[in-house]
Amino acid sequence: MRLLEFQAKRILAEYGIPVPTSRLIQSPSDLAGIEIPTVLKAQVPTGRRGRAGGIRIVAAEKEARAVALELLSSNIRGHRVRSLLAEEKADVNREIYLALLLDKRANLPMVMASASGGVDIELLARQHPEQIVQKHIHPLVGLQQHNIRYLARALNIDELVTFGQILQQMYAILWERDATLVEINPLAETATGLVALDAKIVLDDKATFRNADWFASLRAGQKALETATKTRAERLAQERGITYVLLDGDLGLISDGAGTGMLCLDLIQDAGGRAADFCEVGGLASADVMCQSIEVALANPKVGVLLISLIGGLTRMDEMAEGVVRYLKQHETSVPMVIRMCGTREAVGKATLQEVGIGTFDDLAEAVQRAVELARVA
Asked: CA nearest 81: which of 207, 246, 307, 197?
């Protein structure tokens, strides 16, 4: 189980490792009284958040609220951002990479460190392996002072006492908390000493039986954040097994394939629109799935127009049309639908839609342009 950053830092703090003052944010209103400048960090179980725009420094309260709203309505590497960590900005002199992990090949715990911190360690290992220091630790002896001195010299660290304490406590976390990885990246040198600016802890799920209550509480904490901020549309999609990603626009989108959907997102943006979601029914969708997908997309109150883009290969257009008609018979809606339809049994599908007063487009670009125009006046 990979912990979120705020969970990992709580564990570091419990073990006496210095971390910045921070606050967990679930809505822009939670920023009231926050110290400025601050760093807003998306809490998602993935790396490279900075490159993806998930870590932002803000210098004013108004900017903080705007950035928080933007991040909380975003997705980073496939993960919906449901919480942020608002953290005091540190004055950093130098950044170091430091990790304790289990080396499966050697079947030993190992320290991995680099004087070049705050970077993608995997990329650094490929491009500059000489900049990474590795030291195996014998599990029956543990981390010794000569190990600490060796690593401190390799990293050019003068604060030997603090550095040694941090290393010893990271080693303790690795064993006592059944972790497979305890990583600080970066461990920053500041005017007040060494501080863990970011943290990653991965726990061994196979060790759950040793501390079931603690593991359960960590999982419950992550689940509570996800549930508390999930929209009605997201809950419906989850219940019905429909691929759905909430975005921050007003133009709903349903496609019958990921490639078509991604193309539509680009075309919507090029036409000056903003998509409200990415919803994919899949290449073997039925009329029921189409009906349910429309219900999911229109559960988002921001949607002013719905664009449905269909390319019939394995998907039958007559069944897709039947799903649209079924939804209209079961629900009252004033949201206009723009449908692009081509492929298997498209003539039957188009005729079915025509009977309920819905025209269709053959050209995707024209359909997108029409949907964007309708969204502007919705």
From this structure: 246
